[in-house]
Amino acid sequence: MIKYSSGLLDFHTHSTFSDGSLTPSQLVSEAKKTGVSAMALTDHNTISGLEEFQAACRKEDVFPIPLGVEIYAELPSEIVTPEDNRAPDLVILGKNVNPKPLYDYEQNLLKYFREVFLFESVRKLEVLGFKFPREKVREQYEILQRELQSPPKILHDFIGLPGNREVFLRYLQEHEINDEIAGREISFMNKYLFAIGRPAYVDRISGFNVSDAIVLAHNMNGKLFVAHPGGRFFGALRPEIIDYYVQAGIDGLEVRNYFNSNEQNSNFDELARKHGLIRSGGSDYHGANGISKIGIYDVPDNQVPKEVLEELVDNLPN
């Protein structure tokens, strides 16, 4: 274990099986080149990439956390404000993959995406001037009859439809956002269209709460972690929400993230110590579709502490 604790640690990453730009094999190869020695793949709402991920880790001699998935769970309406994400991200980590309990969650989410999320997202984007040919929306609906895409692929691909890139550039200019977006379109859409408080934000799940998420994680033989509670962008959580998770019986907390402040790092370490939470952390790396760097190699203060790997190995169920 000392060998694998010697490099960078990253227990929150994404691949092409959700909204990352790299396949699991490419992701692990990139991680290895960057100095990552232990990692987890935590795609949104799917574990379909884990087999390829584990094989790549064996090939590259990177220590894998075998089970990783990022899910959504609703917060009680009485504790959220209009600025809050009403269904923040949670991460399940484990030593063994038990996929069966995830099936019901996936099917319920698939139904919600198909019947609510897709059409409400398209409606809000059309209000902004983006064009969606009916046959493209119908095709996406039919895909969601049989396959969970998180997010639905059309909500990233629409920028390539005729005229939509120009609409997006005008939108950015009107809001005095002048950064170069070439090659970073998805990152910019996530931040300026789909994030909380932005015009195309839609709740990501309905009818699945934090208690349900804890049960799901434990039934999958894993533990449930609050994902990226800090930072300065749309993932940051108010202390009241973190307190709610603790009272609800959450298992762990991502104490490091690419965008954390030093004060947040100290506060999260103390919170984990005080409440006996398992520590984790990671970059939330999406490749070209995001901002953060794998392993947080360029922000030393935010890198996951070396001892966290041993804490995970000791505390995740066998």
In short:
The chain is of the alpha/beta class. It has a domain at 2-70 and 223-315: Metal-dependent hydrolases (TIM Barrel, Alpha-Beta Barrel). The chain has helices at 2-5, 24-34, 50-60, 102-127, 134-143, 154-157, 164-174, 185-194, 210-219, 239-248, 262-275, 307-315; strands spanning 8-10, 36-39, 63-64, 67-72, 89-94, 223-226, 252-257, 278-282.
Please tell me about this protein's structure.
There is one protein chain. By secondary structure, the protein is α/β, with parallel strands linked by helices. The protein has a domain of 162 residues: Metal-dependent hydrolases (TIM Barrel, Alpha-Beta Barrel). It has 12 helices and 8 strands. Strands 4-5-6-7-8 form a 5-stranded mixed beta sheet. A 3-stranded parallel beta sheet has the order 1-2-3. Helix 10 links the parallel strand 6 and strand 7. Helix 2 packs parallel to helix 3. The longest helix is centred in the middle third of the chain and has 26 residues. The radius of gyration is 19 Å and the shape is globular. The mean pLDDT is 94.
